[in-house]
Amino acid sequence: MGGSASKQTTSVWNVRKNGWPLIYRPICHVLKSDYFLGVCISETPADIKPRDETLGDPDFMTYYGDCQQYTSIPKDIPLVNGRLFIRGNPITALYDGDFNQFSELDQLDISYNTIAEIQDGAWSGLNQLVSLKLEHNYITVISENMLGGLPELTDLVLYNNAISEIEVGALSGLNKLRNLWLSDNAILEIQKNLFDGLALRSLHLENNKIHSLHPQAFEGADVRDLHMANNELQVIDSGTFTNVTSLEWIDLSGNQLHTLERAILPKEPSLNTNRLFLHSNKLTTFLPSVYSGGFPRRLQLTLHDNPLVCDSSTCWMREEEENGWLTWDSQYPQCYGYMMQNCKTGKCFRNE
Q1: Which of 41, 77, 131, 158 is the most buried (most CB within 10 A)?
Q2: Can you tell me the distance from the alpha carbon of 240 to that of 219, in angstroms, rounded to the nearest whole number?
Q3: Which CATH homologous superfamily contains domain 1-184?
């Protein structure tokens, strides 16, 4: 996801990426991310265009202020509603009142700047904003009041900053938030009640330095897809996810887990297919007792690249697979050959 500069001139394509329509526009940096696919070395004038170029709505405008050497949010933009893109500028801070004139803005993209400070009240006036993109900046802490004033926000993108701490209460008031990207930062711990009141479709915490996950981190919260791959977790305490009943996908791969406590996963697993990724850890065993209320109806599991002990404790997985309850998402675990040869069905129980 990183970005780098280049001396070569390359065209920019009009593409649709992750469901986001992108209007054909040049950008001054090589931005090798999942959003930008091109580079234009020569700077171009700021521009405003009707949104109907991509979405068929002539009353909804998009302002492009990319690569204009703005050092602060410009005050003379002739835009009230629509989308505002101010990417690739040397903006270092956002101040109270910066966006007061954009009372009906729906999307704001200020990624690829050098923003390190966001003052309380910076988002005042953005009462209708649904999407905020702040990736590739220099934010280090999400403080308690930093995100205040965004009651309609559904998508918040903060990956590739330098975030090491999220203060308790920092996400309060974001009651409509559905997708939160915090990957590729330097987050060390997830504190108690950090996500209280949120009902997220996806939460991205992968590629951080998380070594501590409070057993009540998700108290009062709900999450469907949880991505925590490539962190430094060694243990997950019993009860950590038991009340997060909407969980359908948990990715804990690439950590340092050496054991999983009993009953860490939901009491009432979703009736949909569950995906549990545990590959590339240090697990020696995996038992169905990690689910506190019984095994899910369907499970896609990864366990490869773990030092599993190949003995009768693995036989339950062989039976679940034969009964159609368990499938291997990508690779078989190291003990699969042992299970095929030594485990006979009919001797294991789903709720062991």
Answers
A1: 158
A2: 8
A3: Ribonuclease Inhibitor (3.80.10.10)
